[in-house]
Amino acid sequence: MARYTFTLLGAVLITMTGLVFGAEKADQIVEHNMLMNHGGGHLMDMDGGMVMGMNKDTLPPGCTRISEDASITVRAGHKYTKDFPGTMFGLDQHEWRVKPCTRLTVTFINEDHIRHQWMMHGLPKFIYDKGMFHLEMTGPAKITGTLILPAEDKTYLVHCDIAQHMEKGMKGQLIVGNGSTPFPSIPGLTDFAIPDDYGPKVADSIKVALPAGSAPGSALSSVNPTKSGGSNGTFLLGLILGAIGTPFAITYYRRRFEGMTQDEVIQHLLTSSKSIFDKILGLLMTLVSKVTKK
What is the pLDDT of residues 162-180, one digit of tens each? Predict the structure, then answer.
């Protein structure tokens, strides 16, 4: 009987030891540092590690030299969502700031047992394939990649592109120089793109009294009549601003495009146009958010 008892206790002890060491092994961070170069800054290994957009040497247009070498370490995992209700996947940081023309090395550590990414968009496509810098791996793991940021002041979206990971909280922004329009719904930093609203709807709270027998909408036609002089004043102001600003714009872009190829000039103009559109869109979203809150 004693022999049987000791055998059973031994088996239980061995099983528990195996479970403990197995759990520790399963949570061990695996470093992906034996990546195969597939060309164009695309590196991969057989264990699911991937870097896209690796660039340590090629300077973007407008950068005459590397302004500084910087490095950041970013951790991803479910445990980083505890301070942000409604999120499922998270990052330990949601904002990073660097100088224009910085050579940035990013170390990305995945602490979950699923696939995660640290992905940036909006980079020059003739340097970075699809305009993207991308770190990715499955399970508890670590991977490192390097890129050189463009010369423009801009705010770049950083997120995980796995389905619903960004929507559930895995989102941040990288600010270069003074940045541009911040992104909405960055956990702990910016307002939601669509804020929760449990109050009465605007349409329900506004009641317009119409005279008996009048057609719907007839009362609205008399509200805020258009001033005839408004359009003329706006046109004149536009002419004045254009006459003053054009010489400065020509001088700036002549210096900015010096030494650039035709493709680089076109790419820069497209990027600038998108930046202006983002700023206008951000202003409109801010105005809509303020009106909605009222």
Answer: 999 999 999 999 999 999 9
Q: Are 107 and 73 in contact (CB under 8 A)?
A: yes
- C-alpha distance from residue 242 to each of 233, 247, 268 (Å): 14, 9, 22
Instruction: Output DSSP code: residue 49.
Output: -
Q: Are 131 and 150 in contact (CB under 8 A)?
A: no
Q: Are 154 and 121 in contact (CB under 8 A)?
A: no
- 135, 50 contact by CB (below 8 A): yes
Nearest to 120 by CA among 51, 58, 59: 51
Task: Kindly list the structural domains of the chain, giving each domain's residue range(s) and its CATH number in brackets, ordered by start.
Answer: 29-209+259-294 (2.60.40.420)
Distance (Å) of CA 90 to CA 116, 117, 143: 10, 11, 17
pTM for the model: 0.62
Low-confidence stretches of the chain (pLDDT < 50) are 6, 12, 15, 17-26, 217-228
The helix or strand, by DSSP H or E, that contains position 43, with its residue range, turns out to be: strand 43-44
What is the total residue count of the chain?
A: 294
Question: Cα–chain-centroid distance for residue 97?
Answer: 13
Judge contact between 106 and 146, C-beta under 8 A: yes
